[in-house]
């Protein structure tokens, strides 16, 4: 419905007590006549207007026309009112004297909303201000008028500071939620423990710290305790579990804290009403033991149990035996432990309501087998990262027809994929990656599982054409087929895809040209990976708004397209691309990585390269670039890795390279250590809720699609004589400059010694002259330094001994002289190959002793050989003699006409002789060859 409240139509329902008009497009603007009609609903007690679009007259209208209201829900209905409302605008609420329950969640209010509501509605019993953009610390005045309030939900705001002693003002509180704020400090033990009526307490995902107090046992009515996502420490056994009332506690979540030590799960044995337990550790120092004492029997029947990353039964690795007595489980999460044994299929048999089973990253082995009965309730199974093997049972799709998530990646499964997977018509996520599956992908999978959002088949042995006419997976957001043996071309059936976050078909045997529509299948910020195939032809212009493009190691030709629309990462290594880097590409200020190595690109580096202000990795090696390296390259201050090797760059090395970071980067400016917005999430049905005073839900149906950046970005860089791959976060810290195999001349700039964070520097195979700079001792982080195959002279600076991380040092084939630095620190590991080709170097590890070299350089006059001539004296005397001889001959010819004429006749005779003796026979021979 749109427009104002349909008051006139509703006036006919005079006995109406409950009205739900949520999630429409209702607005303000009632006429006096309509307002009169609304007043006829005198018996209306419960009004739900959530999800509409009302203005600042809402409270005035409702207060005047519906004074009998007891419950009002205006959640997400005032979200356009980002201004702070005054008391005047809330004045109408004071007429709602019977109002007990008010939901204003999802709107935008200032912190004064608390004082306003407290003043207008002092008798309020339930208030929800969840996600209302309330910020700042709480004060005693904010809560002073809520002494009758029983339920308060202020989660997902921006509140900070301490909650003590203000929480004591809520003396009648039964349920309090302050989750997802920025509160800090110690647990409010004394103030909280005075709230004797408290049944539910949720301070999850704040920044509380310290040890949990024993006084919690004074709160005898506590049913729900959620302190997850904080920084609490201590031993669980002594600080918490023994304090909880075993006759009331139903829900406990201690996840994502810093608890440590041994905790015996049998402490819960007598908690007869316990239904939900979640303990997910973040520090791996917590050890949960379920088998001590042996044979204990629980009084509870759990519905949800999550013991994640908590060294569960560390000594034995056995799955908890008390689970044999559990028959109401709906969710089980034992991920990231070291449990072993066969797959516990009996969990599904004993708990027919089981919906979620997560055994990720354990050591289960054997076959993944389910009993043939239909498991119609299970919707998510994750057994990834185990040692399961064998083939998938043929009828798996018929056994679990309602499965929405199936993740069996990183196991040892093999054989063909059963066609019954096509019977999982509700499947959203299928991850079979890193196994040994083979054969063709069943037609039933790509034609019937039309709800698939994530399909991951990477690192298997699948083969054949997958993009056939049967391919109908139009809902896909992530497709990973890399590292298989798929063949065929990019069929037009893919052109129906529109919202792809990731399209990865790399490392296969696919061929053909890349169609123009390929860029339309990825959404803005998506990732397109097609490397290591046999694609040919030109790169199309349709690659727009893509975060990462990887077309490396194909047979693509032609120029770099000038229409690439602001990608952040371009990987085109190992193709047959020609031409220069187009000027249009320099308009991309978002570019972080450019790798066009091993192509046939040419031209010069344009000064416009400085517009790549966010560039971190520049790899141009193995092309035909020429000209001087422009000083504008030094404006790329965020560069960590630069490879200009194996080109034809000439001129001198710019003196400004020290202005580039080369690894010296702030932690706030990391580019590869974070997961970029190449991730998303989606819901698959209702959340798993737990009935209580506060609306609680655990998003077990929520699947977070996360493609960490470090999985996608991988760069090879030559250092320490080998090409190594660096990927992910290490790219932020790896740094190197490779200018080798060019035609660079001049001296080595001393400013390079200021690159204190650089790990690799390669200037080899150039025409550099002069000395090795003394300031190279400032390369404090250097691991590989290669200056070989140049014309450097002078001595190796002894101060280089200070470089404690240098594992590779090469100055071979230069004109260096003098003593090699003492074999101390890292220099004690370098062999003579690091110095060979320098005739006048001496000292260990070389065989030449320095006394021998000095003797050769400065022998006594009596010991000199007849052929040992000073080169300077030789060339000087030769030049003087030549000039004198030439001058004498010229003078004689000028003075004496007879000898001058004789000289000219001699020259003429030599010319005629040469013509008839040499040129004429050659001309005859050439004519004969042409006739044949």
UniProtKB/TrEMBL annotation:
The keyword Transmembrane applies. Keywords: Cell membrane, Glycoprotein, Leucine-rich repeat, Membrane, Repeat, Signal, Transmembrane, Transmembrane helix. It is found in: Cell membrane; Endomembrane system. It is a single-pass membrane protein. GO terms for cellular component: endomembrane system; plasma membrane. The chain crosses the membrane at residues 873-895. PROSITE patterns: LRR. Belongs to the RLP family. PANTHER family: RECEPTOR-LIKE PROTEIN 14 (PTHR48062), RECEPTOR-LIKE PROTEIN 8-RELATED (PTHR48062:SF52). This is Uncharacterized protein. It comes from Carya illinoinensis (Pecan).
């Amino acid at each position: 419905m749109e427009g104002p409240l349909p008051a006139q139509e509703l006036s006919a329902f005079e006995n109406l007590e409950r009205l739900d008009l949520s999630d429409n497009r209702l607005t303000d603007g009632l006429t006096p006549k309509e307002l009169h009609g609304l007043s006829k609903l005198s018996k209306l007690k419960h009004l739900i207007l959530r999800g509409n679009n009302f203005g600042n007259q809402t409270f005035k209208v409702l207060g005047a026309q519906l004074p009998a209201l007891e419950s009002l829900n205006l959640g997400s209905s005032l979200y356009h009112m980002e201004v702070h409302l005054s008391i005047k605008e809330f004045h109408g609420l004071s007429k709602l004297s019977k109002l007990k329950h008010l939901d204003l969640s999802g709107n935008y209010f200032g912190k004064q909303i608390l004082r306003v509501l407290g003043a207008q509605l002092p008798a309020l019993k339930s208030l929800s201000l969840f996600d209302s953009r309330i910020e700042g610390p709480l004060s005693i005045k904010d809560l002073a008028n809520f002494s009758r309030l029983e339920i308060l939900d202020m989660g997902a705001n921006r509140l900070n500071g301490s909650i003590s002693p203000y929480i004591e003002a809520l003396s009648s509180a039964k349920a309090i939620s302050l989750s997802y704020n920025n509160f800090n400090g110690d647990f409010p033990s004394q103030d909280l423990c005075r709230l004797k009526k408290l049944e539910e307490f949720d301070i999850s995902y704040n920044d509380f710290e310290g040890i949990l107090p024993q006084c919690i046992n004074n709160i005898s009515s506590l049913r729900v305790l959620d302190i997850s996502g904080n920084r609490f420490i201590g031993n669980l056994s002594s600080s918490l579990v023994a304090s909880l009332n075993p006759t009331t506690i139903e829900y406990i979540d201690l996840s994502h804290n810093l608890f440590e030590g041994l905790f015996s799960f049998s402490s819960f044995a007598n908690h007869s009403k316990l239904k939900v337990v979640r303990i997910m550790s973040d520090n791996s120092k917590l050890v949960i033991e379920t088998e001590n004492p042996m044979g204990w029997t629980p009084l509870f029947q759990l519905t949800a149990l999550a013991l994640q990353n908590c060294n569960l039964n560390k000594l034995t690795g056995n799955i908890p035996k008390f689970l044999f007595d559990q028959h109401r489980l709906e969710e089980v999460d034992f991920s990231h432990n070291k449990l072993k044994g066969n797959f516990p299929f009996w969990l599904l048999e004993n708990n027919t309501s089981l919906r979620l089973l997560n055994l990720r990253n354990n050591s289960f082995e054997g076959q993944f087998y389910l009993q043939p009965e239909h498991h119609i309730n299970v919707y998510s199974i994750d057994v990834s990262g185990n040692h399961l093997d064998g083939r998938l049972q043929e009828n798996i799709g018929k056994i679990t027809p309602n499965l929405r998530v199936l993740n069996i990646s990183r196991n040892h499964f093999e054989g063909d994929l059963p066609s019954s997977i096509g019977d999982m018509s509700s499947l959203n996520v299928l991850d079979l990656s890193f196994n040994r599956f083979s054969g063709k992908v069943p037609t039933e999978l790509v034609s019937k599982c039309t709800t698939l959002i994530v399909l991951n088949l990477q690192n298997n042995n699948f083969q054949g054409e997958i993009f056939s006419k049967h391919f109908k997976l139009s809902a896909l957001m992530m497709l990973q087929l890399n590292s298989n043996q798929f063949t065929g071309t990019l069929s037009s059936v893919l052109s129906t895809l529109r919202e792809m976050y990731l399209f990865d078909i790399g490392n296969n045997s696919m061929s053909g040209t890349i169609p123009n529509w390929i860029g339309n299948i990825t959404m803005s910020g998506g990732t397109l990976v097609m490397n290591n195939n046999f694609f040919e032809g030109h790169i199309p212009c349709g690659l727009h708004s893509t975060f990462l493009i990887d077309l490396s190691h194909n047979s693509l030709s032609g120029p770099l397209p000038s229409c690439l629309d602001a990608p952040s990462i371009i990987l085109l290594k190992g193709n047959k691309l020609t031409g220069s880097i187009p000027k249009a590409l320099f308009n991309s200020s978002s570019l972080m990585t450019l790798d066009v190595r091993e192509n046939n690109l040419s031209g010069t580096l344009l000064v416009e390269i400085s517009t790549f202000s966010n560039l971190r990795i520049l790899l141009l090696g193995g092309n035909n670039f020429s000209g001087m390296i422009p000083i504008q390259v030094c404006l790329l201050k965020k560069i960590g890795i630069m490879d200009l090797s194996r080109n034809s760059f000439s001129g001198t090395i710019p003196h400004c390279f020290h202005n580039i970071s080369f690894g010296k980067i702030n932690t706030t400016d990391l580019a590869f250590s974070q997961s970029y917005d190449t991730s998303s999430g989606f819901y698959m049905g209702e959340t798993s809720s737990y009935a209580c005073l506060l609306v609680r839900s655990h998003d077990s149906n929520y699947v977070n699609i996360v493609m960490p950046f470090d999985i996608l970005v991988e760069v090879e860089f030559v250092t320490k004589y080998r090409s190594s791959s660096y990927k992910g976060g290490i790219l932020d810290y790896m740094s190197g400059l490779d200018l080798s195999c060019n035609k660079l001349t001049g001296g080595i700039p001393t400013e390079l010694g200021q690159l204190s964070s650089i790990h690799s520097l390669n200037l080899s195979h150039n025409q550099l002259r002069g000395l090795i700079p003394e300031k190279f001792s400032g390369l404090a982080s250097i691991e590989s330094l290669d200056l070989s195959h140049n014309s450097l002279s002078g001595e190796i600076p002894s101060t280089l001994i200070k470089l404690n991380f240098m594992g590779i040092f090469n100055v071979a084939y230069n004109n260096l002289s003098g003593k090699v630095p003492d074999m101390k620190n890292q220099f004690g590991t370098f062999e003579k190959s690091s110095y060979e080709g320098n005739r006048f170097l001496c000292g260990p590890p070389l065989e030449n002793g320095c006394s021998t070299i000095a003797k050769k350089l400065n022998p006594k006059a009596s010991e000199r050989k007849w052929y040992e001539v000073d080169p300077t004296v030789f060339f000087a005397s030769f030049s003087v003699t030549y000039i004198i001889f030439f001058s004498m001959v010229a003078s004689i010819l000028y003075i004496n006409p007879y000898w001058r004429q004789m000289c000219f006749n001699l020259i003429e005779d030599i010319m005629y002789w040469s013509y008839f003796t040499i040129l004429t026979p050659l001309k005859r021979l050439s004519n004969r060859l042409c006739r044949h």
